[in-house]
């Protein structure tokens, strides 16, 4: 077995490119909502437009998640990554120059198109450039995404007060533009820097102790391909649709997305109505919910890659999420609300967990591209419905009890899927067991 290379050796540009791309994906989404009041001072922004902007992310992510593999087949991972980052940067700058609600919506859609592409590309990029350092790189890039979730809301308003909302919105484009530079340099050099060493193996994790999988063979992680990555194709994607493992990972990812978008849409209102906290305190508690994802981003990738702790991590996330919701339902006290939000925020473990599974459940970058597209497109399609559904249920019942019960039911229903996703096998293994040669 070849020893892993130092992280920066021969692939410094890939490290910078992945981290800057990861930061841009979340900062592009999180930087607008705190500034709606500032924008509305210059031109009217109707509630319908705000609703469309809130629904746009999962819809765009699902659509462009399906289109990205087609582009990757023709252009390759790095070129499509450059396109995605330039689209994000252009959209952020154009959003800063919005003159009415329509231009605000269109520029935001351009941003989310680029983000939808980037969401699909990051796991395969890590798989391709860091097969021997999956745990470390997944930790770094999911941490960058966690930071970019709660940092923009904290600084957006102060920057807007000092320099205006247009600059506050557009400034995040610098990170996306900077993120494209390493990939452009690598392409201009005419080679892929940091490609995996032939015949190098990824870190071998310890065996899981699950009784159902105790005798399962170790997933094949041998990197046998050359520098170039074989393009994702329709044959691979069609096979994923027939595999319970692929659907299980998609459901876990979709549950993670559902918890995030439901919380960012409704959690402050729920806390105000049920616990009586002020709007400013509710905003801080929303930041607490987002912050809980940071520790998860630091530890989950390493625990999964090295110790195959998929199922324990999944169950911790689900149980804590249910406990937090139960607290908000049965003891909605202002004195305890911080505890309930912190417990519920531990469902943030599901996001880095799902991203790591996309990488470790595929033998090759080709399969990882197809799996990433399938998982994220299916997951975002499911997640898109819940913010609207919960709003309708609240309007019908006049209370948040039924919406909270629905959220809790989602966490309970996902348990069997999480256990399937924790099976220690690759997509290729699962296919070969059912249908023969991959």
UniProtKB/TrEMBL annotation:
In terms of PROSITE patterns, this protein maps to: MFS
Q: Which UniProt keywords apply?
A: Membrane, Transmembrane, Transmembrane helix
Broad class of where this protein is predominantly found: membrane
Query: What is the annotated localization of this protein?
Result: Cell membrane
Q: What topology does the record note for this protein and the membrane?
A: Multi-pass membrane protein
Q: Where is this region: Disordered?
A: 197-219
Classification via Gene3D superfamilies: MFS general substrate transporter like domains
Record-annotated Major facilitator superfamily (MFS) profile domain positions: 10-426
Bilayer-crossing residues are: 46-68, 80-98, 104-122, 134-157, 169-188, 245-267, 279-305, 312-331, 337-358, 370-394, 400-421
Q: What is the protein's name according to its record? A: MFS transporter
Organism listed in the record: Microbacterium murale
């Amino acid at each position: 077995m070849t020893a892993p290379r130092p992280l920066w050796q021969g692939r410094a540009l890939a490290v910078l490119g992945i981290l800057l791309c990861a930061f841009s994906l979340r900062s592009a989404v999180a930087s607008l909502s705190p500034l709606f009041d500032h924008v509305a001072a210059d031109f009217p922004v109707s509630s319908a437009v705000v609703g469309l902007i809130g629904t746009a992310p999962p819809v765009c992510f699902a659509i462009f998640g399906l289109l990205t593999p087609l582009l990757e087949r023709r252009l390759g991972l790095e070129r499509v990554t450059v396109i995605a980052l330039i689209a994000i940067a252009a959209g952020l700058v154009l959003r800063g120059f919005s003159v009415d609600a329509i231009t605000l919506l269109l520029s935001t859609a351009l941003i989310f198109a680029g983000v939808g592409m980037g969401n699909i590309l990051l796991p395969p990029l890590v798989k391709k450039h860091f097969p021997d350092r999956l745990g470390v790189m997944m930790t770094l890039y999911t941490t960058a995404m966690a930071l970019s979730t709660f940092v923009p809301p904290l600084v957006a308003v102060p920057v807007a007060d000092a320099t205006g909302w247009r600059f506050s919105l557009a400034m995040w484009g610098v990170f996306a533009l900077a993120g494209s530079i390493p990939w452009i340099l690598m392409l201009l050099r005419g080679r892929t820097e940091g490609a995996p060493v032939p015949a190098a193996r990824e870190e071998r994790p310890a065996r899981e102790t699950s009784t159902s999988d105790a005798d399962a063979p170790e997933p094949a992680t041998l990197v046998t391909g050359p520098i170039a990555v074989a393009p994702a194709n329709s044959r691979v994607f069609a096979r994923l649709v027939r595999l319970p493992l692929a659907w299980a990972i998609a459901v876990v990812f979709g549950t993670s997305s559902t918890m995030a978008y439901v919380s960012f849409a409704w959690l402050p209102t729920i806390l105000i109505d049920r616990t009586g906290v002020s709007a400013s305190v509710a905003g801080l508690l929303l930041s607490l919910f987002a912050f809980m994802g940071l520790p998860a981003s630091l530890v989950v990738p390493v625990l999964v890659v090295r110790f195959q702790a998929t199922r324990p991590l999944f169950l911790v996330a689900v149980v804590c999420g249910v406990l937090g919701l139960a607290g908000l339902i049965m003891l909605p006290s202002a004195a305890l609300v911080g505890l309930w939000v912190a417990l519920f925020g531990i469902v943030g473990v599901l996001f880095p967990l799902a991203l790591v599974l996309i990488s470790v459940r595929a033998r090759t970058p080709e399969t990882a591209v197809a799996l990433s597209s399938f998982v994220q497109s299916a997951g975002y399609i499911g997640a898109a419905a819940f913010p609207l559904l919960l709003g309708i249920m609240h309007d019908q019942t006049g209370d948040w009890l039924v919406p909270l019960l629905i959220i809790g039911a989602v966490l309970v229903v996902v348990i069997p899927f999480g256990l399937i996703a924790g099976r220690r096998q690759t997509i290729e293994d699962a296919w070969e067991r059912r249908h023969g040669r991959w």
